[in-house]
TrEMBL record:
<dbReference type="Pfam" id="PF13175">
    <property type="entry name" value="AAA_15"/>
</dbReference>
<dbReference type="InterPro" id="IPR041685">
    <property type="entry name" value="AAA_GajA/Old/RecF-like"/>
</dbReference>
<feature type="domain" description="ATPase AAA-type core">
    <location>
        <begin position="298"/>
        <end position="381"/>
    </location>
</feature>
<dbReference type="InterPro" id="IPR051396">
    <property type="entry name" value="Bact_Antivir_Def_Nuclease"/>
</dbReference>
<dbReference type="InterPro" id="IPR027417">
    <property type="entry name" value="P-loop_NTPase"/>
</dbReference>
<dbReference type="Pfam" id="PF12476">
    <property type="entry name" value="DUF3696"/>
</dbReference>
<protein>
    <submittedName>
        <fullName>AAA ATPase domain-containing protein</fullName>
    </submittedName>
</protein>
<dbReference type="Pfam" id="PF13304">
    <property type="entry name" value="AAA_21"/>
</dbReference>
<dbReference type="GO" id="GO:0005524">
    <property type="term" value="F:ATP binding"/>
</dbReference>
<dbReference type="InterPro" id="IPR014592">
    <property type="entry name" value="P-loop_UCP034888"/>
</dbReference>
<dbReference type="GO" id="GO:0016887">
    <property type="term" value="F:ATP hydrolysis activity"/>
</dbReference>
<dbReference type="InterPro" id="IPR003959">
    <property type="entry name" value="ATPase_AAA_core"/>
</dbReference>
<feature type="domain" description="Endonuclease GajA/Old nuclease/RecF-like AAA">
    <location>
        <begin position="3"/>
        <end position="63"/>
    </location>
</feature>
<feature type="domain" description="DUF3696">
    <location>
        <begin position="393"/>
        <end position="441"/>
    </location>
</feature>
<dbReference type="InterPro" id="IPR022532">
    <property type="entry name" value="DUF3696"/>
</dbReference>
Amino acid sequence: MFTQLRIQNFKAWRDTETIRLAPLTVFFGPNSSGKTSLLQFLLLLKQTMESPDRKQVFNLDGSHAYINFGSWSEMVFGGDVDKGLNFRFAWQVPNTLGNEGIIELTQGKSLEFSAEIGPTGHSPMRVQTFGYRGVNPAIVSPAAEPQSVIGMRYRLEKNAYEMVPSRLNQLLKGRVLSAPKRFYGFPEEAPGLVVDDLELELERQLDSTQYLGPLRDSSDRLYAWSGGAPGEVGFAGENTIAALLAAQGNLLQLPNESEPTRLEVLLANWLVRIGLLESFEVKSVGSETSLYRIMVRTPGNHRQVNLADVGFGVSQVLPVLVQLLCAEPDTSLIFEQPEIHLHPKVQSELADLFIETLRMRQKGRPRNIQCLVESHSEHFLRRLQLRIADKTLTPDQVALYFCNPGPEGSTIEELQVDKYGRIANWPENFFGDSLGDTEKQMDVMLNRMEEEESNASG
């Protein structure tokens, strides 16, 4: 789970300052305010990690790219190619079986990664420095400080890289360090297994980050599934039904429930609960085929119809719900406008489902799911405020931000929410000026009534 993020000189952001990332983090703001690019930055890191080209500092638009970032000049703030891009992020190391080495390495707490990427005369990008903070100091050096960093830095006067801390350079035994792998990886000459563990843990965090975009695929009449398990619904929800079929039978335990429920039953219940459907069922076309159809019953109807024959809103929200339910434990989920094409009441109910996701258990332990959301929905926000007030959600479980564009770069402000769900620093015209519109409507109405009365009497 990501816990902090700071980016400097990226797209609309000169400097985000440190952003606290909670289990449920929601970014609001007007168009072109930079809120989308905050989430896209994490995708940049992920698609670089997944790229087969280890010499690329960043994978801007090549293979395995979720987002096409164009060129360095298009990505860096203000288009200034002489600027460097600096960033850092922190995340919790999951305390699960199978990662005892990582827990020893980090003292079972968290890790922080930081990097400075700068332009050169020959290439738009070069890793100037990178490092991992939060490593067990006893591993770094017996005399190391608690916040010691293991990493690399480029020395311009030597035109070469060196290890940090400097004592690690003694273990190279005269070997020259190659350039880092991607933006985070140590070259083969780097000493010890510790560096491998650090890379693997960063890759685990990025690999467990999943993204669903704002424009999801429309429903098909038939779906082919050969038994594979995609693990996520895909960039546009293209793997939604395959992910659902692969996860059928998985058990999830709701808060305040003593027994777990099958995942597909939960999904059907959710669709009924938010008022979009009365029933939802995945049916095989035949025993000798790998084709499936989704049959649903809408409110007020008594017969099932194909999902392709119902409103567009169902096809847009279905990938969101499947992503929430099918995600593996310790996954960070990124959503752009999950409320798109939904009725205001459904938008409010959707917020409850996000909260419910945070509180679910799987196999007797918390799922530890994180949701990073970009939203334009006042109804989504209002429901979160209500759930803080009624103690369903605690303020530390949620972080709400408002992004604003500006000539010197976008700015971001965390909304200060108290235990009653009240926002102390509500931004001006957050969701438009509804009160002002109401006052203007009253003025127009009174003037019009006076005019009509005058015309009638004249």
